[in-house]
Amino acid sequence: MIASHGVQYRQYADDTQLRLAIHADNTSDGLSVLxxxxxxxxxxxxxxxxxxxxxxxxxxxxxxxxQLHAVTSAVTSVSVAGVDxxxxxxxxxxGVVFDRRLTFRKHSMAVARSCNYHSQAISHIPQKSR
Length: 130
Prior knowledge:
The chain folds into two domains: 3-88; 91-130, no CATH class. The protein is built from three helices and seven strands. It has helices spanning 27-47, 65-72, 105-123; strands at 8-12, 15-19, 59-60, 77-80, 83-88, 90-93, 96-99. β4 and β5 (83-88) form a beta hairpin.
């Protein structure tokens, strides 16, 4: 059903990620495809006794600086299953923080912060005396 819209997707347990390549000069058509796809997904969920929670959904637009400048001035929200979501600056997926330019700066900072936390926690473990 999702593929019939021309949208790429990955599913992990109770999480579905949709990806759609959109040209900066034709964003409205791409966003319409995404809106129709998510509406169909919501309908399928309802028919099968499931619930899609669009409020837990996130939208991220990825591209070069020029592409992002052209698109983000025109696109401030994305319709997911009838709910308008604001476009995020970054999002976490499977433990990896993705940003709009795919620089991985925020992900690197999150990993470093986690390492610092755990190394501090380890330093507080008392050592056994011999």
